[in-house]
Write a structure and sequence with these properties.
By secondary structure, the protein is α/β, with parallel strands linked by helices. It is 46% helix and 13% strand. The longest helix is centred in the C-terminal third of the chain and has 27 residues, at 493-519. Bound molecules: cobalamin and iron/sulfur cluster. Residues 9, 28-29, 32, 34, 38, 40, 42-44, 47-48, 89-91, 93-96, 118-123, 142, 145-148, 151, 227, 229, 232, 234, 241-243, 283, 421-422 line the site of cobalamin.
Length: 575
C-alpha cells in the first residue's frame, strides 16, 4: 500500500456546491479551456510537487473540481475524509475560487481539525491579512508568485511541530491567536529551479493510478493543451490586469519580471513533446526577455526538433524579424493577440500601446509566412467603451475577415468577467480609470459567487456601461460574432445555429432571473422559481459550449505513447 502523502494539494471548484446550487454562469470562461467551474489548477502545482519530491517530501494533487464535474454523485466529504496527509494546500490563485477555496478549507477543517491548511496564489497573497483574520479554517497563507522554498520550510516546521517564525513570505496565526506577517523576501530572480515537468505529472498519474485527480481541466484527455510559463511578472500595465507591472510591484513584491532561461524552457518543451503531440502554449510574450531571448527560444525549438504546434502570445504586433524567425524555426506555429477593442483610443486607455493598423500589418505578414492560425481577442467592459463601441468591434472583425481571412484568422469577443482583478490599476484607482467597484473584500467576492446569474457576479461597472448594459452588449456582440463566423465559414451552419439558440436562451434566462429578483421577495419562493429554470440553463450551457470548440488550435492533439512506454520500461528495468 502507498504511504500517506505529506501534502495534498487540492484544487477547488469556483463554488463548492455548484452541483446543488442554482446559477447561470454564462460566458465567464468562454475563452479559456476550463468550464465556468474554473477547474484548471495553477501550473505552479506541478513545480510545487516536483520541488517537494526532490527534497524528500511526498506530495500529490487532487483536482476536486474535475472529479466533481466528471462524477455528479461523487461524495466529496468521503473523499476528503480518506485523505490523511500532514498538511493540505488549497490554491486561491484566481479570485474566481474565493467561495470554493474557503468553503473547501472549512470542510477539510471540519473533517481533519488537527491538520494544517495552507492557502497560496496571487489572490491569497493580495487578501492574506483578511484570510488569517476572518477565516479560522485557514492556518497559513504563503504569499508571492513563487513559494517552492518557503513551502518546503513550512513543511519542515509542520513535521517538527514548531512555530514557523522564520518561514519567508508566510502569514499565519500563532498559538496565542495573533496574526503574524513574516517578511516577504523570497522572490527568485530566475525561474530555472522551478521545474514544470509534465513527465513528473505522468509519473504521478501512473504512481497513484489516478488520472482524474491530476487532469488540468475537464476535457484534457479529449484535447490536451499544454502550457509552459516563460516568465513571472509583466512589463506592461494593462489597466484591468492583476498580473501587470504595477500589480506585481505593489502587491507581489516583484519589481521586474523573472524569466525561465531559454535552455530550461526548451528542455521543458522537449519533455512535453515526448509525452504529448498537443500544441504547446508559451505563456507570455517571448520578446519581454529581449530579442536575444526570443531568438534563443526559437532556435532551441529548431535544434531539438520539437514538432508540436507552438502557440505564441503577442502583447504587441510582431515585427518582421520575429515572424521570420518563427517561420524558420517552428514546423508549425499559431499566434494570438488581444487588441481588446478595434478603437485605438480605447486600446491605449487600456494600456496597450499599438494601433489597429500595426496589428493588421502583423496579421497579414504572419499569414503569408505560414502561421497556421491567428486568434484575435476583443473584450467588453473596457475604459471608454460604450455599448455601441463594443458592437462595432464585431463589425470590425467582419471587415478584418473580409480583407485578411482565409480560414486561419479567428476573432473572439467576451466580457471582462467575472471580476476586475484585485491589484490592477483600475481596481486600485477606479475613479481615475472610469470604473465603479461594487465589491472590494474577499468576503464580498465570495458572496457574489453565490448569486444566481453571472451578471451579478461582476464586481464593477464603468462610466460608459452599467452591469445590465455590459451583459446586454455581451449577448448581442456574441450573437453577431457567431453570425460573422458562420458567414466566413469558421463555424459550420449546424453549430452556429446551436450557439445562436444557446445564446438567446441564456439571455432569456438572465432576463427571467432579473424578473424573479424584482418580483419575489421571499427567499424560499425565489429559490423555487430559480429551480424551474434549471432545464433551460443546462440547455443553454450545452449549446453555447459548442462555440468553444473553435478555441482549439488544431484538431491534431493527443498523448504520445512513446513517452509513456519509455517511462513504463524504465520502471520495469528498476524492478
Ligand atoms: C498563465 C495565465 C493563465 C493560464 C493558466 C495556466 C495555469 N493553469 O496556471 C490561462 C490562460 C488558462 C488563464 C486562465 C485564467 N486566468 Co490567468 N493568467 C495567467 C498569467 C498570464 C500568468 C500567471 C501565472 O499563473 N503565473 C505563475 C504564478 C504566479 O503562479 P504559479 O506558478 O502557477 O503558482 C505559484 C504561486 O502562485 C503559488 N501558488 C499558487 N497556488 C498555490 C497554492 C498553494 C497551497 C501554495 C502554497 C502556493 C500556491 O505558488 C506557486 C508555485 O510557486 C497571469 C497574468 C500575469 N502576468 O501574471 C493571468 C492571471 C493570473 N489570470 C487571471 C484570470 C482572471 C484568469 C481567469 C479567471 C480568466 C477567465 N475569466 O477566464 C482564468 C482562470 C482559469 C482557471 N483556473 O480555470 C488574473 C488573476 C486575477 C485574480 N487575482 O483573480 C491574472 C493575474 C491576470 C489576467 N487577468 O489574466 N490564466
Ligand atoms: S494583460 Fe497586459 S499587463 Fe496583464 S499579463 Fe497581459 S500584457 Fe501583461
Amino acid at each position: 500500500m502507498m504511504a500517506d502523502p505529506d501534502l495534498v494539494l487540492l484544487h477547488p471548484p469556483s463554488v463548492y456546491d455548484f452541483r446543488r446550487r442554482f446559477a447561470m454562469y454564462g460566458p465567464i470562461s468562454d475563452v479559456i479551456p476550463s468550464t465556468p467551474i474554473f477547474e484548471m489548477y495553477p501550473l505552479g502545482y506541478v513545480s510545487l510537487v516536483a520541488y517537494l519530491e526532490e527534497h524528500g517530501y511526498h506530495a500529490r494533487i487532487v483536482n476536486l473540481a474535475v472529479k466533481m464535474l466528471r462524477d455528479p454523485k461523487l461524495d466529496v466529504e468521503k473523499l476528503i475524509e480518506r485523505l490523511n496527509p500532514k498538511a493540505f494546500g488549497i490554491d486561491l490563485h484566481w479570485l474566481v475560487h474565493a467561495a470554493g477555496a474557503l468553503d473547501i478549507a472549512a470542510l477539510v477543517k471540519r473533517l481533519h481539525p488537527d491538520t494544517p491548511i495552507i492557502l497560496g496564489g496571487l489572490s491569497a497573497t493580495y487578501y492574506h491579512r483578511e484570510i488569517i483574520e476572518d477565516y479560522p479554517q485557514v492556518d497559513y497563507v504563503l504569499r508571492g508568485d513563487s513559494t517552492e522554498r518557503p513551502l518546503l520550510r513550512l513543511m519542515e516546521h509542520i513535521e517538527r511541530g514548531s512555530e514557523p517564525v522564520d518561514v519567508e513570505n508566510l502569514t499565519w496565526r500563532s498559538r496565542d491567536g495573533k496574526r503574524r506577517i513574516n517578511p516577504f523576501t523570497y522572490i527568485p530572480e530566475s525561474l530555472d529551479e522551478l521545474t514544470l515537468d509534465y513527465g513528473a505529472m505522468v509519473r504521478l498519474v501512473l504512481r497513484h493510478r489516478d488520472l482524474e485527480s491530476h487532469l488540468p481541466y475537464e476535457n484534457f484527455m479529449d484535447y490536451p493543451f499544454t502550457a509552459l510559463l516563460t516568465c513571472k511578472g509583466c512589463l506592461y500595465n494593462c489597466v484591468t490586469c492583476g498580473g501587470s507591472r504595477y500589480a506585481f510591484k505593489c502587491f507581489f513584491n516583484r519589481p521586474r519580471p523573472a524569466f525561465k532561461s531559454p535552455e530550461r524552457l526548451v528542455e521543458e518543451m522537449a519533455v512535453v513533446s515526448e509525452y504529448f503531440h498537443s500544441p504547446i502554449f508559451l505563456l507570455g510574450d517571448l520578446r519581454q526577455g529581449g530579442r536575444g531571448y526570443a531568438e534563443a527560444v526559437l532556435e532551441g525549438i529548431r535544434r531539438e526538433g520539437i514538432d508540436n504546434t507552438i502557440t505564441l502570445e503577442l502583447f504587441t504586433p510582431a515585427p518582421r524579424w520575429y515572424l521570420d524567425k518563427m517561420a524558420e524555426c517552428c514546423g508549425s506555429f499559431t499566434l494570438e493577440i488581444s487588441p481588446e477593442s478595434h478603437d485605438d483610443e480605447i486600446r491605449h486607455r487600456q494600456g496597450r500601446p499599438y494601433s489597429t493598423g500595426e496589428m493588421e500589418r502583423c496579421i497579414e505578414e504572419a499569414l503569408k509566412l505560414g502561421c497556421e492560425r491567428f486568434d484575435v481577442f476583443f473584450m467588453i467592459g473596457l475604459p471608454g467603451q460604450s455599448y455601441e463601441s463594443a458592437l462595432e468591434s464585431v463589425e470590425y472583425s467582419r471587415r478584418l475577415l473580409r480583407e485578411l481571412g482565409d480560414g486561419r484568422l479567428h476573432p473572439f469577443i467576451a466580457p471582462l468577467s467575472p471580476f476586475l482583478d484585485p491589484g490592477s490599476l483600475a481596481f486600485e484607482n477606479p475613479d481615475e480609470y472610469g470604473y465603479k467597484l461594487l465589491y472590494r473584500t474577499l468576503g464580498e467576492h465570495r458572496e457574489a459567487l453565490y448569486q444566481p446569474c453571472w451578471k451579478l457576479f461582476l464586481n464593477y461597472e464603468t462610466r460608459w456601461m452599467n452591469r445590465d448594459e455590459i451583459a446586454e452588449a455581451t449577448y448581442e456582440a456574441m450573437l453577431r460574432m457567431n453570425k460573422v463566423k458562420r458567414d466566413f465559414g469558421l463555424i459550420d451552419d449546424e453549430r452556429a445555429e446551436r450557439v445562436e439558440e444557446g445564446l438567446k436562451l441564456a439571455r432569456w434566462v438572465m432576463h427571467r432571473i432579473d424578473e424573479i429578483n424584482s418580483m419575489v421577495r421571499d427567499p424560499v419562493e425565489r429559490a423555487r422559481c430559480y429551480e424551474e429554470l434549471r432545464g433551460e440553463v443546462e440547455r443553454a450551457r450545452r449549446w453555447t459550449w459548442e462555440g468553444k470548440r473553435e478555441l482549439r488550435v488544431t484538431e491534431r492533439a493527443g498523448i504520445r505513447l512513446r513517452g509513456v512506454l519509455k517511462h513504463l520500461l524504465g520502471l520495469a528495468r528498476r524492478l
